[in-house]
Design brief:
It is a single chain. The protein is of the alpha/beta class and 721 residues long. It has three domains: 206 residues, Endonuclease, Chain A (2-Layer Sandwich); 298 residues, polyphosphate kinase like, CATH 3.30.1840; 174 residues, Endonuclease Chain A (Endonuclease, Chain A), CATH 3.30.870.10. 35% of the residues lie in helices and 22% in strands. Helix 1 packs parallel to helix 3 and helix 14 runs parallel beside helix 15. The chain starts with 36 loop residues before the first helix and ends with a helix. Its EC number is 2.7.4.1.
Length: 721
Amino acid sequence: MIEPEVLDAGLGDADDDDFDLSEVFDSQLPDHRYLDRELSWLAFNQRVLELAEDPNLPTLERANFLAIFASNLDEFFMVRVAGLKRRIVTGLALPTNVGRSPADVLADISAEAHRLQLRHAEAWTSLVKPAMAAAGIQVVSYDSLDEAEREALYDYFQAQVFPVLMPLAVDPAHPFPYISGLSLNLAIRIRSARTGRQEFARLKVPPMLPRFVELPPVDGAVRYLPLEDLISNHLDDLFPGMEVLDHHAFRLTRNEDVVIEEDETENLIQALEAELLRRRFGPPIRLEITDDMDDVTLDLLIKELDITQQEVYRLPGPLDLRGLFDLSRIDRPDLHYKPHLPTTALAFQPGDNNERPDIFASIRKGDVLVHHPYESFATSVQAFLEQAAKDPHVLAIKQTLYRTSGDSPIVEALIDAAEAGKQVLALVEIKARFDEANNIVWARKLEKAGVHVVYGLVGLKTHCKLALVIREENGVLRSYSHVGTGNYNPKTSRIYEDFGLFTADDQVGRDLTRLFNELSGYAIEKKFKRLLVAPLHLRKGLLRLIDKERRNALAGKPASIRIKVNSMVDEQIIDSLYRASQAGVKVEVCVRGICSLKPGVQGMSENITVRSILGRYLEHSRIFAFHNDGDPVVYIGSADMMHRNLDRRVEALVRVVAPAHVKELNDLFTLSMSDSTSSWHLGPDGEWTRHNVDEEGKPLLDLQDRTMVNVQRRRRARAVR
């Protein structure tokens, strides 16, 4: 283990161990000072739904937001609600909800989720579906088709659908079938023409077939029929000799969270693969049914699935609006956001002769800050690793991989580097939720190519976004580093807003070298120069920076804190921000998702402002900026303010030091928090209010549109020079 060095990453020269947390928490704060985490998440998904309801957005983008809402809610039930149910079973309390039991929280979640799902269904039926129809894209019912169309559909059904259907009867010889999570099903009641006996059958709507069947256009309008509607109108073909009495759609959500006792297993991959198999059979946690389902069928489902009435969601059809992802991709440019082509970051643009830039030479000139998706991932991060793989002077590449795409050029670059004889280390986080199986595949592919693959430290997820290239230059080894806020994923880089910092700074290189060595070894040291690293130091480092602003304010000095994260939940961080507010520090928080902090409470948080921005891109970057008595301290990185990020993950923030980069980040923050920018404002009661028009009803500025313009302006300014 490398000996610890004195910490100076913007925190002063004192050893961090001298910082006493009790100094931050030396007075009383109200007991009920946190907003409920789960209800705050549902409020975030309501903001997504409000985008779908907005008539000023392009129609197919609204359909896409409906699909996102549905997908988000599925994951919420599979993970968060499942976790609450586990707490009920094990008798654990909720530390973030003083005086409330998991059962109480679960009841509140059920009530709010019911309300939102009904609002979601109404948004489709009354808002988005009619808007699509007005634009020439119709989703029709089978009953609306004429006889010729039905005959053509019957031929399609017989040729493309019928062969893959698998009706499963329930009778003394056939037990109730297993219902897979998130599958769309038909519950069918039939009667034998011979015996008169009523039976039940389950039919799964095949997920490999298009959810919406395209029909011949009429009067220029394209038309689609839901697949379950087609199937339900041909049930007689599936049950010859039986009378089909009734049928209803239903959908089950199961507990799909993965829990592995890492310290009790000898082979993490084998244990994870076994757990993934068990996840398919997790207990049910939500049953969605169409609002016309009869009590006989519902009672049977409740009994056989062992589910409670509280977990039943009766909704108008169609169920599972994730299918709208398919319709939202229809090639109608007039119904989508205007295309945006990412520019190449100024530092990485081709030279006068349009030759391919030398990424390493560009980084040697100074730190490079890249803002995705406004600036291209392919011509920055991807080009950095591809050049490293081919460069004969590069000796080693080390990288973390949390989530990546199935055909990732990042993975291919690492394989190319290994096959070229370079030392390559890939730290693959195989426990990345819902990407576990994909990451196992890539880990094995990397191993076969000769890459040194490690899986991090026992009990910790490696969530930091780091890449380190070691290059020999004139007989001296030089480090080129990349620290990002988002995953090394070319696909999500086009829709996730993130920052990445490239630097040839020797101190960052030494920090990353140490961190990678410790990740592939046994422990993480807590002392770094330009990094803040969780789990041993990041929380304490941020608390110290926050408290320094508090003390500066008490001393009459200017003081301010700006934090941009996906989630703000951690109680110690929130309490320290309350203390800062009480001392007069101006605190601005921009949070995309969950926020347990209550802003604007007199005597506690009246100096705290919380905003949320959602749009065509998913706001994903994390920024931490402190006034620091006129010498700004600014970090970017991978950590959200949650227990898991600060205590159970390896996270890394890097200090941004170039004045131009500090200004760029602060300018972005100023624009984000401006009253002239469209956003949601959080009130002390936990209610989010959308502010997207001014007093005259004119649209407020769109942050993401303006950022596109600003990036293009910088490029044009460079071209003029």
